[in-house]
Design goal:
Order of helices and strands: HEEHEEEEEE
CATH class: Mainly Beta
Distance between the termini: 69 Å
Number of domains: 1
Radius of gyration: 19 Å
Low-confidence stretches: 49-55
Shape: globular
Mean pLDDT: 81
Number of helices: 2
Largest sheet: 8 strands, mixed, barrel
CATH topology: Sortase, Chain: A
Length: 198
């Protein structure tokens, strides 16, 4: 009887602590990806916009199943996240996913990045709705930092694919997440254009 009671208490503790443990593990994975990213950049100013050199991605195996292809930073909402290729559940658990068949970061067309909204304040794209026209978004790739300026935000239906279409004459960045935070029924879209001086 006593063993059963202890077992129930233990199970209860695991259930109670699971959200905290899950958030801690996710944060740990994010920090490892960001650390590996920063450690892999050569000491030539790459990533801070002061070098024209081209860096090669690291060949070593990352600690996470995939490695970052970029880092997304939005100072206004205190956001810094690894960008991963693809939008698998594993990728979106720890960072931002580059939607397949959209433009590469900094390339002509529409680069689409997506992430979960998260119920926790400040986590993933939770504060994305705070962005407004004129705000700055930085996406750092292996060879340069791309500065985008927000041109607009909108709410769309989940099946509205018009927001991911691109035009080779533009350099657009589109960020996508769910809306509202709880019981999402729509998608929050933030659109930005590559800055003229980038």
């Amino acid at each position: 009887m006593r063993k059963a009671a202890y077992a129930l208490i233990f199970i209860g503790l695991i259930v109670f602590l699971y959200p905290y443990l899950e958030r801690t593990y996710t944060w740990y994975c994010q920090q490892r990806l960001l650390s590996e990213w920063e450690d892999s950049l050569p000491a030539t100013g790459i990533g801070d916009g002061t070098s024209d050199a081209v860096a090669e991605p690291p060949a070593e195996t990352p600690s996470y199943p995939v490695k970052s292809i970029a880092v997304l930073e939005i100072a206004k909402i205190d956001l810094k996240l690894p960008v991963l290729r693809g939008t698998s559940a594993a990728n979106l658990r720890v960072g931002v996913g580059l939607l397949e068949d959209t433009a590469e970061i900094g390339a002509p067309g529409n680069t689409v990045l997506t992430a979960h909204r998260s119920h926790t304040y400040g986590r993933l794209f939770n504060r994305l709705d705070e962005l407004a026209v004129g705000d700055e978004i930085i996406v750092t790739t292996w060879d340069s930092a791309h500065r985008y300026i927000v041109t607009g935000t909108l709410i769309v239906e989940p099946d509205d694919i018009s927001v991911i279409r691109g035009d080779e004459a533009e350099h657009r960045l589109t960020l996508i997440t769910c809306d509202p935070v709880y019981n999402p029924t729509h998608r929050l879209i933030v659109q930005a254009e590559l800055a003229a001086d980038a």
